[in-house]
Specification:
The chain is mainly α. The chain has one domain. 76% of the residues lie in helices and 0% in strands. α2 packs across α4, α2 runs parallel beside α5 and α4 crosses α5.
Length: 119
């Protein structure tokens, strides 16, 4: 995700859909990683299958840094499979580059710090 090129996404529909597909995959891996980290540290999850509840618990446990952006990503992930309009795809790609990549990177750093502390 970090190597995606915004200019290429703006010019090429296939590339843009690839960025959106990678966003969907990255989001899935991210919230499931938050779930695993919470479970590892003994947090009792109220709704183990719900990404929304996992993200809220992750925010409370300081694993995710911006609850509003994460919940927005969840909403956009749910809508992404139904994007048939180029303007909507462009808006999602803009959000990915402007907001979402930064919170993925922050989560990666937080989880890396936890893993390093556990060693």
């Amino acid at each position: 995700m970090l190597k995606a090129d915004r200019d290429d996404a703006a010019k090429d529909a296939i590339y843009r859909m690839g960025v959106i597909g990678q966003f969907n995959l990255t989001f899935e891996l991210a919230w499931k990683s938050v779930k695993e980290a919470l479970e590892f540290h003994g947090v009792a999850l109220t709704a183990p299958g719900s990404p929304r509840e996992i993200l809220k618990e992750g925010y409370a446990a300081d694993l995710v840094n911006d609850e509003e952006v994460w919940l927005d990503m969840l909403k956009k992930r749910n809508l992404a499979i139904h994007i048939y309009d180029e303007a909507e795809a462009d808006k999602l790609v803009s959000s990915i580059f402007e907001k979402y990549i930064a919170v993925f990177v922050k989560l990666r750093d937080v989880l890396a710090g936890i893993a390093a502390a556990e060693k």
